[in-house]
Structures are given as structure tokens and as C-alpha cells.
Amino acid sequence: MMQTENIRIGPKGLGGFLTVPDEARGLIIFAHGSGSSRHSSRNAYAARSFEQLGFATLLFDLLTEEEAGDRRNVFNIALLANRVVLAVDWARQQTRLKGLPVGVFGASTGGGAALAAAATSPHIRAIVSRGGRPDLAGDTLPHVRVPSLLVVGGNDRDVLALNEAAAARMVCEHRISIVPDAGHLFEEPGTLDKVLALSGSWFLKYLAPAMPETIPLPLVDREEAGVFLARALAGHNFKAPVIYALPRGGVPVARPIANALKAPLDILMVRKIGVPWQPEVAAASVVDGESAEIVTNDPVMRATGLDAKKIADLAKPELKEIERRRRLYLPGKIPVRAEGRTAILVDDGIATGTSMKAAILAIRKRQPAKIVVAVPVAAPVALHAIGAMVDDTVVLAAPSRFEAVGKYYQEFHQLSDEEVIELLRQQPHGEE
Fold first, then answer.
1. Is the dihedral of CA 365, 367, 371, 373 positive or negative?
2. Residue 93: which H helix or E strand, with range?
3. Nearest to 251 by CA among 399, 53, 427, 430
4. How far apart are CA 93 and CA 98, in angstroms?
């Protein structure tokens, strides 16, 4: 269980709360804005969200109580930035935090301080500004070199204009994300969760890739895996997304994603063609469509002596099973069109990648605008090969010594047809 501890930073003893998950994948330091502190319930809520994604969090006060009493200090961006750098340097001295990539989550004046700190510290890897004042970073803005996300409420028009002016001076990778119907503090229902989804996705992208195997494993079950993936995907701006699950195991992972993105959920019927004397080893996969698509695992075929004719014979009963399942799972339903949309392919994990490759080839024939693969766990070699076939991959963990997919779940039962049917009935957006 994660424990939060009180810490003190620097000669002035700046107070902070540090929470470190097991095998943390990065550290997110909070740069509070004017009138806020480490005791803010809003910041605590944000920290818990980041911790669920596997990040350590540090909430600390940039000013002492005496300093905070002088309002000039609240807007002294140079001072606040120095305090952020002080916290970064402190973290690098701690054994359990050493080596973790660092991101800074700033709000209000803390957004400007975070950017100014990133302009001077080589140890900050990503910035998120929530309703921040990046304009206060002033002449340091062109010197920021790390990916920076500026999140602004759609109703916070004055601050939005200031963010746009600041962004125009930035030469690093950056993006302004507007949360519709939100004010400066994101107090409207659901708006803070949207901020955290955008922020979590940003930090996952820029802090986690160097160490993708560090998400806490095993996952509880497929549903939890789907919730984590949904958070990672929610920050992306997908064009009319449609979720394609690889049944059976991919369906419970895909359901939370479809709910979060308010996207229709369909299935891609892919069946593994196993080696006859070792069925768990995939020699090929077959997927339904206008014509059956067979993708072979060439190394396995060479090692086992299987040829194309034998694979075609082995595919026949799998095609019959595909037809049976589609009639059972989606009786009378027309497949959701992928043309011009973002097709997100979901499974409960990737070992050899043969089934996912077949799914990618099949969905490409439907002419989507973009293909994204989203899975909780994947073997690094298979992930590399699949990544070359699609526009983007979102993976929570890629353990270097990959075992069977089921090893990364506490609960990994064989789903029944009834369970799959029930999950497919739950369309989140009234879309068939």
C-alpha cells in the first residue's frame, strides 16, 4: 500500500507530501499557484490520479508561510522557479527517486514557474500547466526545451488569450488543450477529470516510454487494465474513434475505453492457428472480413515445418468458429464503419503479435484515418514490429522478460460467451 510522508526541502524547510508507488515510473512535482498549498484537496485529488498511473507525486509549498504573506512573492516567478528547481534537485538526491524522469504539474502562477524552471533545469522532462499563467515565464519561454501542455478552461477567456500569447513564443513541442464549459478552477462537474486525463496522457507519453515495464504488475483484472488504458487514451484528440476489441479477452478491456471516449464498440474476430502438437504456440492467425486474412508467424512455421497449405487447412475450423461467434455476439448487427475514423484496436495483451497483425491488416482495408493499438501489456519485440504497422501504440507495460499474458493479471479467467454478449450490449453513446 502506498504511504504518503511529510518531507522538508531546502534550508527553509519547505513542507511537502511525497507519495511513491512500488516501482514508480516517474515523479510528478506540483507547482501550486497563488492561494494554494500542499493541503489543497484539488491537488490531492490530482495526485491520486497520477499515482494510479504509476507515478510518484510530490506536493510541496513553494513559499514559507511568512513569504506567502507578502503578495509580491506570489508573483515572483524567478523565486518560484528556483523553488521548483530546488525540489527537482532534492528529489535527485533521494535513493528511491533517483533516476526517475521528472515532470512538473503547475497551476496558476505555478504554471509560469514550472516553465521558467524547465528553461534552466536539464532534469525536467515534461510540463503540464493547468489553468496556468505561462505568460509570466516571460523571456524564459523561448528557452524551454521540454514538451509542454497548456490546459485552459473554455470559459476562461482572458487566461486562454494569455496562454495563446505565451505559446506563440515557445519553440519546444507544445499544445494548448481547451476543456469546454470549464472556468479557471475547473470546478464544473467532470472538467477536472478531463484535465487529469489530458495531463496523465501527456506524462505517460513523455515520462514513461523510457521505462514502460514499470507500471505496477500484476493488474487486478482486464477491467482495471481497461480503466488505465482509457485514462491514457482520453487525452488524445481522436477523429470519430471506434473501438475494435479482439474477443474474447479484449472485450472487457475495451469496454471502459469505449465508455470514456463515448465511442462505439465493435469486434474483430481473430483466431489463432496453433501448432497442432503445441496449440498455445501461434503459427498464424486468421481474421474475418470481406475475405479471410491469414497472417503467418514465419519463424514458428520454419521451426515446425508447417507450410501454407497446412495452415490453410488448419484455418478452416477457425473460420467456422469466427462465423459462429459473430452470429452469437452481434446478431443482425452491421459492423461499425471505420472509413475516415480513428480505429483503436484493443486486446488484453500481446505475446507474439500474430493475432494483432492480422487485425491491423483487416482493419486497414476499411480505410480508417488512423490506426491505434492499445493493450495493457506487450512483449517488446512484438510491440516494436506492431508499432511499425500503425500510427500509434498505447501500452501500459512492456516487460523485458515477457511471459504469458495471463501472468500479468491477478484474475485472468476464460470469458464465457454470455459475458462477452453482455459487454457488447452496453453501448455508451446510443450508437449501434
1. negative
2. helix 77-93
3. 427
4. 6
Q: Tell me the per-residue pLDDT of 17-58, one tens digit each, with 9 for 90 and over.
A: 999 988 788 999 999 876 677 888 888 999 998 988 889 999
Q: Reduced to 3 states, what is the DSSP secondary structure of residue 36?
A: coil
Contact 295/285 with Cβ under 8 angstroms?
yes
Rounded CA-CA distance 394/379 in Å is 13
CATH for 217-425, among 3.40.50.2020, 3.40.980.10, 3.40.50.1980, 3.50.50.60?
3.40.50.2020
Nearest Cα residue to 113 out of 162, 78, 63, 74: 78
**N residues, the chain:** 432
The grid cell for 315 is: 484455418
DSSP secondary structure letters along 130-187: ES--GGGGGGGGGG--S-EEEEEETT-HHHHHHHHHHHTT--SSEEEEEETT--TT--
Instruction: Give me 51's grid cell.
Output: 499515482
β-pair type (370-377, 26-31): unpaired
Q: Which residues contact 310 (CB under 8 A, 6 or more apart)?
A: none
What whole-number distance in Å separates Cα of residue 251 and Cα of residue 269? 11
Q: How many CA atoms lie within 13 A of 179 on its CB side?
A: 30
pLDDT tens-place string over residues 211-237: 344 467 888 899 989 988 998 887 677
DSSP bridge partners of 148:
127, 174
Cell of 370: 488512423
Parse the chain into domains and list their residue ranges: 4-212, 217-425
What is the fold, at CATH topology level, of the domain defined by 4-212?
Rossmann fold (3.40.50)
Q: Is the pTM of this model over 0.70?
A: no
| Nearest to 166, CA basis, from 138, 146, 145 | 138
* Range 19-29 burial, b when 16+ CB lie within 10 A, else e: bbbeebbbbbb
Query: How far, in Å, CA of 84 to CA of 102, rounded?
Result: 11
Whether residue 218 has a cis bond before it, omega within 30° of 0: yes
User: Which of 217, 173, 195 lies closest to 395, judged by CA?
Assistant: 217
* 4-212 matches 217-425 in fold: yes
